[in-house]
Amino acid sequence: MARPPQPPVTHEAVLSRLDAFPAFPRTVQHILETVDDPDSSMAVLSDMVAHDPAIAARVLAVANKAAAGSRRGSVDDVFTATSLVGMQTVREIALLFSVSGFIQNLAGDWGRGAMWRHSVAVGVCAQELSAHVLKEVSINHAFIAGLLHDIGQFWLLLHDEDASVGCWTAARNAGSDICRAEESVFGVSHAALGAWLAHAWHLPSPIVSAIAGHHRPQVTVDGHVLVDVLHMAEVLSNALELGGSTHAHVTYLSDRACYRLGLAWDETLQPLLGRIEARAQYMATFLDH
Question: Which of 26, 82, 156, 286 has the fewest Cβ atoms surrounding its Cβ within 10 A?
Fold first, then answer.
């Protein structure tokens, strides 16, 4: 028996369900608000981390591993740990664990498997690309955009798991983009839906635009460099087989995005690819503990 057509998923319907979801992590918003603030100090970051026991424990573990290599004594406070491993590393740990906990609370088993590992890998790729292309794009914005680029897929899985998985299967069998399959079934793609959520969570506009356009950077009109960075990050993540997800592969590479970022597919990319693989493996160790 044929399945009845899906009613379209509307912007209003998505926003009406926000109260039923876990609250978006305030830690993420606070870091994004203060990361470019010259008055934001290590003490402020350390105090914020210290108020989250899970994040604090991970920061201390990383610091003590570094201390052991330098023959220092054990580190037992977050401020010392932050001074030892650096503010950017502490930000990355806080962002990773805050979003990871949110995704797991939101999506259960779907938030612990290959889809989440894929998101982390794309976050790493986006960070490294943003540094490599020497454009005006925040590496912290890039990391968050990568972690959240498929948040719309998690929403669709909660909305109708069978239909969402059916979209993955149809796209894979046809060799077509997942967004086309989602639009035919739900009336909206996970990319557009994810941008609705990111906007509702008051995330910076470059992150919202990047999530919206990461499958179709050629049609974006706002000019955010992060759109191209996130598109290329997913392409590289899939090309390097990072994360293990088979559901959301980008089926084409935007030549326009490559041109705008000044990327040449030659041996000059090898150092970048090496850094991406090394950092992706390092980040994966956090997910195994």
Answer: 26
